[in-house]
Design goal:
The structure is a homotrimer.
Chain A: H1 4-7, H2 17-30, E1 35-37, H3 44-49, H4 56-60, H5 65-73, H6 89-99, H7 107-118, H8 131-142, H9 149-155, E2 158-162, H10 172-179, E3 186-188, H11 194-197, H12 204-215, H13 221-238, E4 243-247, H14 258-269, H15 275-296, E5 299-303, E6 306-307, H16 312-318, E7 326-327, H17 337-343, E8 351-353, H18 359-369, E9 375-377, H19 387-401, H20 419-439, H21 445-463
Parallel strand pairs in A: 1-2, 2-3, 4-5, 5-8, 8-9
Antiparallel strand pairs in A: 6-7
Helix pairs in contact in A: 2-20, 2-21, 7-20, 12-13, 14-15, 18-19, 19-20, 20-21
């Protein structure tokens, strides 16, 4: 019965029987631990308002660029993957079910299959059911009271869920959730100032104007801009935020004198910044963000190395986050040095470095995290949070940096229903990696039992100050 | 008995007994499928004229730069690896047999050993026989009627074999083979215009002159040049070609206005092009080649990232393709973007991207092929079409792009007798990779049986429009 | 009993029972072979004077930047890891024992645990004993006569140990050891001229002045500089040196005319060299070092790609080699070409290329070493001489370059007592890799037995001309 692969208790565990036995035992130690998700893209309002999820296609297909991209690659135009006008959700779902065989062996396929089995209890592999059958079955589940976001939050055993938010967001949903005695989870905002820092962002100038007007306490110009950012960070801290996230093109950092930075800032506001000006200002602002993190305690996370919106025509027609952000080579060693010179050993400063370029793991990130108290290895991210890639990550970094220097699993997802499958997959891979070290007599089984708990539960709490 | 390793039914399959059992079963599904070779360097005239192969050294040693390079590295001067003057083939063969231990663990050693066992039926490992014994045994085989190219073509179960041809080649051998009722295989030409596009090529100017004279239908200058290329592509299409292959230094692409491109073209013909001019023109011509592929349907394959003829003195003495083309780092993401902006979603356009820089697989190629309908992942190529490297490829790309986005195996060889060994090795590795996914409960065994047939047989047919 | 993992006869061997059985058998062939260490940083005077080792912290913690870096990353200030003033060694040792869990899964942890078990016979894992207990136990061993360096040299079964020396060193300790009839080992100097070649080195100008004064035989200027280097190399050769080692930022090489090189040299001495001047001169000097190696026979080893002293404040307070040399991306193909054009096939020239950037292994180094008789693959080095990384190295290079083109294991250590553990780990990994090839029927078991002896014992002797 094919559906057994999603339900199989040994899924993702190593094939060698002796190693698998060890992995099973390690996995059992962490399988019931709560989910801690310190970085992701779920909308806090969805939890707060406890709105029922929409139909299967609007929930599982259209908004998930991991899913639409591969169907698009197979030749299905992007507009067929969104309900609109005469195309209804059921039609979109049919396209998806037709494309389901494409997902064999992929991370997305694994998460989806696990959801179908464990969240939606389909009872058979998607490919064995007609599209209408699966659509109806999932639709029926989605209107059950047990499928409201808050109930799932509890059923998924989520303890902490961080969202990603605009610096000027009022965080009303977060506040409401905190104040609601009937809700026991922690839903934390994350400060994400990209659109206020990246000069090339189409609305940078207006964002900055609004930021200064709203939050600079009367300050103006570059000084007002910095003050406003500091104020908004403080607002986020006051509303439970533990980290500030930075999606940047490269990991470049730079310390400029205030006068020079201010001049670049005004040049950019006047629309006269060159590409070199923009790069310098952005690199300088990463330095400033680190300074502010040292001061206000927000963990700083950096996500560089993705060429956003690679295909212009698709971006123009369908907007950002539509599946064509393409990674490129990244070099951290020189780029991050100016920041680390001043803040690499700063007290309680936590800097989590992510990469989509795997070569950086053994070459740069493990050596950096193995020396600087501030630096942590970001978990394999985006295209890399898949079973084989996660194993390659552990193999690449552990011999240099051990287990204590990594961030813990980051699901980085907007697909709420996939959260259990993602964390479960990560735990299975940690168990697999450690089981191999035990089988090779490199770590004792007792220590491996302690390590897996620390990796799954201790690391995210420690690194994200939870 | 050492010769058993070449004959062992489980060779290249994973050691874990449970996984091996699955791999055996998967392999059995594809072991007898015909060979489809959509890119390689066998000479069509060899098949057409059905000439007996020359002596063992001239067949298996001297022309194979995979083989001569490693013997050269061991200190044997290149001229001792070619019969000429007083040095006869038997002497060359002795050098090779002496060097045979160097090939342990290499891909070349695997292909050779398999040929000795399965094609030439040596009955013992090369190292256990005297050089004269193996020379004589192979020589005796080579004069048998059963060793003529056409008989081997049939015995090797080759269905399609693509050659690589000069744009001005008259394709007479291909035509003769097509018209010969006694020959049932398909031998297809491939359009390879490097020497007409790469300005740095020593005979570029004269090639271009000849091209325009011969094929521009009276056109002149840049317009005539483009017209001539279009005409010759059409000629290739009419003679069965399915693809155009491009060996380029980098994957740079660029769209220039016709006037600007024409000016660069004339500057280059006058011998005044700078390095930057050459790069721009070549990048522009990759854009033009894509445009023509969109129009005439030829699959476009790109092979970048090799520093050709790295050792000047060897190049001067022995010419190109003598074992010192050395790969370097490649970046596709930005380089290929101008081409993909305009043609990434063009109907029926197939663009197969190869790399010798493995880092590109997970970082750039899988994400590109997982979004753009035109982009396919080229199989691991050259130094990378070896068992471990092929497994690394599958591990690097599958979690992002699945199985449907890769080209299928490419043997890329001029060594005709190695074709079965190469395709067999590839099938064993596909079985090994899929068997692991089955053993880890990531793909069901039923689906794996379908996938391996698709990967081995369906992909090359689909990607190369066969 | 946790301590069993350090003593376990199967440690580091593959988990699959069939493969492990083969690996055990292969390991048994090389386990008792003498240690050949052609590159490292032990001080010859320590062996010559046969001084007792200092206390446990001063021996195993403070000088080992592999160890201090990870404790520093955990938040312990660097000064707490060195005895001085009121902080005694026992205090440093306590910090180390507290930090011991950080080393799980690391290469350093493996070496230390093996030393505690096999050299210091602790009888239990460090984490199970109090810091004082282990400190006292090791201290007691260190004063035993059997723990004097010469006795350990014998007990460790060291046949050859190369040191790393300043070009102006008089090599008195090496000379004394050679002339001492009571000492049977070979302790060889290595010529390491970085501080005389790298213009950016703080004492370059004064080093050069001293070099010319001392060793130029009256020559002056650039000609005197080259003559002095040649003379000092000759002096090293006369005292047993077999290699010259070069720690460079990049692998750039360049052939300049003497007049141009001389002009750069004088510009640099006058303190007027630009960054470009320095790069050109250093690249040119790599070319000159190769020329001298061709002439005097010293094996040339190149170690590029490390950003030295990444954290300025730590460098200022604690000096170089304190754990923050961070690797970056390296490109050999173009950089090394000028040198190889002239010396790549020079008779008896051996050039060993190291990298901290793993991507170079399959992409550049295996292809280079698989063609040029002069080029050898440096063993995985520094962050990469760990079990998984060594297996990745073999997998990356063997299919292209076989087993004959690599340098053999390089321990590169100043930690004398770790030498047996390091060489033993390397042998276990070679056995593991070969065992897999045997299990996959890619190498016969008989040949594997020959290959492992050649890899462990033959390669370093051949490559380093021992």
């Amino acid at each position: 019965m094919p559906s057994s692969i999603a339900a199989h208790p040994d899924r993702l565990l190593p094939a060698d029987p002796g190693t698998r036995e060890i992995a099973r035992s390690l996995l059992s130690r962490v399988q019931d631990l709560p989910v801690i998700s310190p970085h992701g893209h779920v909308d806090a309002a969805v939890i707060e308002q406890n709105t029922p999820f929409p139909d299967p296609a609007a929930l599982l297909v259209s908004p998930d660029h991991y899913v639409t991209r591969l169907i698009h690659a197979d030749g299905v135009p992007m507009d067929q993957l969104r309900a609109s006008g005469s195309r209804d959700s059921r039609e979109v779902w049919r396209r998806f079910v037709e494309a389901w065989p494409l997902f064999e062996g992929t991370a997305s396929g694994y998460w989806l299959r696990t959801q179908f089995e464990q969240v939606f209890k389909l009872g058979a592999d998607l490919g064995e059911l007609s599209a209408d059958t699966s659509y109806d079955a999932i639709s029926a589940k989605l209107v059950e009271p047990g499928f409201r976001p808050r109930q799932l939050f509890k059923d998924f055993n989520i303890e902490v869920l961080a969202t990603t938010d605009d610096p000027l967001d009022d965080l009303a949903s977060h506040k409401a959730l905190t104040e609601d005695p009937s809700f026991n989870g922690r839903v934390l905002p994350t400060f994400r100032p990209d659109a206020y820092i990246n000069i090339a962002h189409p609305s940078w100038a207006s964002n900055v104007e609004r930021l200064i007007e709203t939050a600079a306490d009367g300050g103006t110009g570059y000084a007002g801009y910095l003050a406003a950012l500091e104020n908004r960070r403080r607002y986020f801290v006051d509303h439970g935020a533990v980290s500030a996230d930075h999606g940047v093109r490269t990991p470049a950092t730079l310390k400029l004198e205030a006068a020079e930075a201010g001049a670049l800032f005004e040049k950019a506001r006047a629309g006269n910044a060159t590409a070199a000006d923009r790069d310098a200002f952005e690199a300088h602002m990463m330095y400033q963000m680190a300074r502010m993190s040292v001061e206000d305690g927000l963990v700083m996370t950096i996500h560089p190395g993705s060429y956003r919106n690679h295909h212009g025509p698709t971006f123009e027609a369908f907007g950002a986050d539509t599946g064509h952000d393409i990674p490129f080579a990244v070099n951290y060693t020189e780029a991050i040095r100016p920041l680390l010179q001043d803040f690499g050993t700063a007290k309680d400063f936590h800097l989590v470095l992510f990469t989509l370029d795997e070569t950086v793991f053994s070459r740069e990130l493990a050596p950096l995290a193995g020396f600087y108290p501030s630096v942590y290895l970001g978990a394999p991210w985006w295209f890399l949070d898949a079973p084989d890639a996660m194993l390659r990550f552990r193999s690449a970094v552990t011999e240099t940096a051990g287990f204590s220097r990594s961030s813990g699993f980051i699901d980085d997802t907007r697909a709420f229903c996939s959260i259990p499958a993602r964390h479960d997959a990560s735990r299975r891979i940690e168990a697999s990696f450690l089981a191999r070290l035990v089988a090779e007599h490199r770590v004792s089984e007792d220590r491996a039992h302690e390590l897996i708990v620390d990796v799954v539960d201790g690391s995210p709490r420690r690194v994200f100050k939870l």
